[in-house]
Task: inverse folding
DNA sequence: TCGACGATCATCT
DNA sequence: GATGATCGTCGAG
């Protein structure tokens, strides 16, 4: 099976269910980080907990390149207990707490020790909406983006926290799978969000999104 | 030991 | 558009 193309039958999955999803293999993650970030668009995030399942489609990502990237937690090889899992081999989860309030979910990329990863910023609910709403402490009619339109919201909807830091993303209870391929003319790029401190890296176009998707965390700048 | 800050979000005006 | 919430983490001392 071509890791980039999947089995070719994804389009026939009208209503994807957890047991029918095929996890992305480790070779998917062992590539250049911005490539992985772009290719994660349209893939599914699957979560299993308490015999219930949640599925979302990834619509927005950001690449963090590691050593050379001032916005990365691995800038200059910085190594502390918090970021240990960021240095695992590609295909593992790196989860951290931000602003003392919110969790952020990353997929580690590249070989072990590099410290590069892709932040999952926004996703579109596919299955398990009521459980996600419950996890988010919301009820009633929810607007697009209110469930998982942002990295903190996404983690809350998935019930993901530091307890899952470092787990492999290829098996339940949390994995990424083949999904709905996104054509290149449907991809928009732009500078990353919330890294004003990062010097030159501020402008690097390492944020990727599905053009026009209603579940993006916030608009992309024009020219993108 | 302490001070500053952050890959955010909800709730205001 | 602006602001407060809230606390783990890290570097400085």
Result:
């Amino acid at each position: 099976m071509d890791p980039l193309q999947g089995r070719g039958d994804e389009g026939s999955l009208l209503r994807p269910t957890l047991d029918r999803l095929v996890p992305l293999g480790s070779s998917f993650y062992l590539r250049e980080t911005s490539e992985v970030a772009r290719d994660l668009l349209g893939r599914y995030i699957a979560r299993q907990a308490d015999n219930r399942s949640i599925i979302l489609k990834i619509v927005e990502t950001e690449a963090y390149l590691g050593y050379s990237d001032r916005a990365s937690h691995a800038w200059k090889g910085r190594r502390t207990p918090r970021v240990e899992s960021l240095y695992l081999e590609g295909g593992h989860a790196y989860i951290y707490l931000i602003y003392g309030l919110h969790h952020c979910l990353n997929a580690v990329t590249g070989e072990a020790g590099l410290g590069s990863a892709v932040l999952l910023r926004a996703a579109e609910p596919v299955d398990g909406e009521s459980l996600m709403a419950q996890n988010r402490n919301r009820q009633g009619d929810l607007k697009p983006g209110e469930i998982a339109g942002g990295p903190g919201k996404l983690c809350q909807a998935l019930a993901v926290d530091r307890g899952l830091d470092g787990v492999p993303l290829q098996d339940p209870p949390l994995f990424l799978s083949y999904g709905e391929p996104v054509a290149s003319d449907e991809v928009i790029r732009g500078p990353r969000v919330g890294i004003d401190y990062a010097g030159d890296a501020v402008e690097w176009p390492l944020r990727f999104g599905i053009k026009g998707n209603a579940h993006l965390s916030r608009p992309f700048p024009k020219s993108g």
